[in-house]
Design goal:
Layout (H helix, E strand, L loop, with lengths): L2 H4 L8 H16 L6 H25 L11 H20 L15 H19 L2 H15 L4 H22 L9
Length: 178
Amino acid sequence: MTMSDERAPQWEPDILDEVQAEVAQALDEDRPPAGGPAYQVVGALVALAVGVAGVVLSYGYGLGSLRHPGAGLWPFIISVVIVALSLALLVGGRRLTDSERFTASSVLPVVGLLTFIAFGFLLPVIGFEIPAFLLCVVWLRFLGGESWRSTIVVSVVTVAFFYALFLHALNIQLPHLF
């Protein structure tokens, strides 16, 4: 009998299984209470309203053609997709059970939408740079909970990148200060 025969194989728990179980447990603890089919329907109706508003507003900008697209073509296409997906959720959402109840954090997307609308109103008035920087700061710091250091760095780099992309690389005439 050799020494390796003397050692009986012992079952050792798989570290990956343990980590997956811990992560699943942590996610279940952080999850808001389950909602019902009504929450699916409400979510579908909100998305449908956003999509319809996008279709109407983008059509007003002019669609143009595929060879010569107007300013509203891509927003129109995306809005039509939102409407189609919202209708699919509205039809099938009553049978789904994976929705979550609305909580205080459910307001965050609304705040994000309102800041984006404010960006749209401020852009023609004071240019691209300041509203874009403020939008990044609000989204990163107040909606995302990032530190001030990372918020400032990421906001400055993001605005500089999009400034260079739109104004210099793509030659898109945006209102700007510099």
